[in-house]
Write a structure and sequence with these properties.
Blueprint (H helix, E strand, L loop, with lengths): L13 E9 L5 H9 L17 E6 L3 E7 L9 H12 L6 E7 L5 H14 L3 E6 L6 H14 L4 E4 L8 H10 L18 H15 L5 H4 L1 E10 L4 E10 L2 H8 L4 H18 L2 E10 L7 H6 L3
Parallel strand pairs: 1-3, 1-4, 4-5, 5-6, 8-9
Antiparallel strand pairs: 2-3, 7-8
Helix pairs in contact: 6-9
The structure holds guanosine-5'-triphosphate and magnesium ion.
Length: 304
């Protein structure tokens, strides 16, 4: 037999949409990238890195799982964060399964309480990934497993390290078992539904977040103004703008003699080259859009 799709022991290929939910900084995007075997979703040690729904498809022999990485859930205080959290919660209604990711080192009690309330309302199966076990002692881990198993009726509880890839296959097995039988939604090989322009903008935002401190990560938005493939796809020419809220922030992003902006551009270019597998010419601009995080029109312009 020459079947492209290999059914499991019960004879069923399984497929479904899975929302990855959790508090900010739990390691959701790191886990998505690990499951995909490729960097798609940007990550950083600062909370509130992800701002949009990031779709990534995991292809297995006996299943296809379409993951929606989401922004960390928290009690939002400004218009940008309110929109972002609403977007994350709205994925709950669209999916077959929820993957709740919690940080086993630094639990975020308030955000997790909020999440459990939402999960109670939605009646979807939920798999729990207790993440960052590379940093947790065994007794502490066992008490966390006990705590979580009592807090909610999970389909499975799997301790993992997204960073090191530990137990991630076991987690995928547990999610596969919780999905309904069904055909694949995406063709083989497809990674995402996101346009390359968007992913390029995200890679630039990641470098701006990682290479600056204090308030800058929260004040940055990136737009791609030009994305042109040349030489039969061997070269991509990209012009992008980093938007900040204040003049002082513009100075920080540019740095002394333009050094910081150069560093951001260099790191982003390499990341985009890896993703596109082509040479990239990247030109960056910095612009002040006063208080854009509180301005509905600007939020829309920046895709939030
Ligand atoms: N030690 C350890 N750190 C991890 C692990 N997984 C993720 N991290 C770190 O946790 C931080 C946050 O990771 P992200 O993947 O950006 O977290 P997130 O949940 O997507 O965060 P938001 O998008 O802000 O909600 C980064 O510094 C990661 O390197 C892990 O398994 N072990
Ligand atoms: Mg994230």
């Amino acid at each position: 037999m020459n079947n492209e799709i290999n059914p499991d022991a019960t004879g069923a290929f399984r497929s479904g949409y899975v929302a990855i939910l959790g508090a900010p900084n739990a390691g959701k995007s790191t886990l998505l990238n690990r499951m995909l075997g490729q960097k798609l979703s940007i990550t950083s040690k600062k909370p509130q890195t992800t701002r949009n729904r990031i779709l990534g498809v995991v292809h297995r022999q006996s299943s296809q799982m379409v993951f929606l990485d989401t922004p960390g859930i928290h009690r939002a205080r400004n218009p940008l964060n309110t929109r972002i959290v609403d977007a994350a919660l709205s994925t709950l209604a669209e999916v077959d399964l929820i993957l709740l990711v919690v940080d086993a080192i630094n639990p975020d009690k308030a955000s997790e309480q909020l999440l459990l309330e939402k999960l109670d309302q939605h009646q979807r199966p939920v798999v729990l990934a207790l993440n960052k076990i590379d940093q947790v002692q065994r007794p502490a881990l066992l008490s966390q497993i006990e705590h979580w198993s009592a807090a909610f009726d999970f389909s499975a509880v799997v301790p993992i390290s997204a960073k090191r890839g530990e137990q991630v296959d076991r987690l995928l097995d547990a999610m596969e078992a919780a999905l309904p039988p069904g055909p694949p939604f995406f063709p083989p090989e497809s990674l995402t539904d996101l346009p390359m322009r968007f992913i390029a903008a995200e890679m630039i935002r990641e470098k701006a977040i990682r290479l600056t401190g204090q308030e800058i990560p929260y004040a940055v938005a990136v737009t791609v103004d030009l994305f042109k493939e040349e030489k039969n796809g061997a070269l991509a020419r990209i012009h992008a703008t980093i938007h900040v809220e204040r003049d002082s922030q513009k100075g920080i992003v540019i740095g002394k003699n333009g050094a910081k902006l150069k560093q951001i551009g260099e790191a982003a270019r390499q990341e985009i080259e890896n993703l596109l597998a082509t040479k990239v010419f990247l030109k960056l601009f910095v612009r002040v859009q006063k208080n854009w995080t509180k301005d509905t029109k600007a939020l829309r312009k920046f895709g939030y």
